[in-house]
Input
Amino acid sequence: MRRWAPWGVALALASAGCVRASLGPRTIPIARMDYNAALSRSWDEDLLLNLVRLRYRDSPLFVDVASVTSSYTLTRSASLGATVSDEPELTGGVGLTFTENPIISYTYLRGEEFAQRMLSPLAPGTLAELSQSGWSFERLLLCCVQSINGIENAIAAAGPTPDYVPVYETFQQVAALFRRLQIGGQVMAERDGDNGTALTIRSSAGDDGAELRRLLALDPAATRYDIVAARHADGPMQIALQGRSLLAVMFFLSQSVEAPAADREAGNVTSTREASGALFDWSRVVGAIMHVRTGDAPAHQAAVQVAFRGHWFWIDDNDLTSKSTLALLRLLLFLKSGDIRSQSPLLTIPTR
Output
């Protein structure tokens, strides 16, 4: 054994060289998936935190990961020694050290262009394309539309929480009819030419189609109607759709955030009251698309959760409806900010 010790050291060093040569490709599957999962989770947490902030009338802020640069280092070492005595003995050893050095740069979305996009209404064509991509008409209407042919969708909820109950019931009926017709393949929205958008309600739509036409004051004999970005329609062949801005969408969804009783009593959040003086339940307005729960401790089965003002806020992992709405909100944010020129990094952190 003593005779082969130097050869063992040489073999170990050669093996280390082989490991180093293939180190880069081997890090891709693990590192890429880990960073992907971390970035996706952080985006959801950032969105949820901003919804909670708006519920408390605090200012939102979007912090983005501008870049992630990671380097890997493999250090090898070897030692060889000899002991001189009555029975000489050779000893050897090798060492391998693997180090990852990620550098992460953060930036926040800002500037006049981003502010204008946050405040500009969503266009009917954008909503038509989202519906063609499989998004629910009901979710799109409730989240993204202020009014349709003069029927209001809780307009006061598209800003800081009001202390009175807004008008919303008829709009919810319209949204539910759209969803039922969509499931049955009886309604479709699509771009009509370069700038126009049209809605088709099939003649076979039955009672739901007739009721939708009645509520929207549409021509009962027609099947195709023009959609325009306006408050009121110009005749029974037109649908006037007033889209919400991204900021208004977020304010509206912030009404789904449960407020801890202690914060309501302290006046940290607005308490909406019915005419009778009873506390209004906002789930009647947004419960069909989103519900953010709260508690004093982290949830065990949460899809996403954040800590804020000494409380925890989360979306349950089995609440597929709320998770879908959060995914829609992330998509809308990307649509608004995706082609804005990147700002200089706010912070660059080398991690060890």
About this structure: The longest strand covers residues 63-83. DSSP finds eleven helices and twelve strands in the chain. Residues 194 and 250 are 29 Å apart (CA to CA).
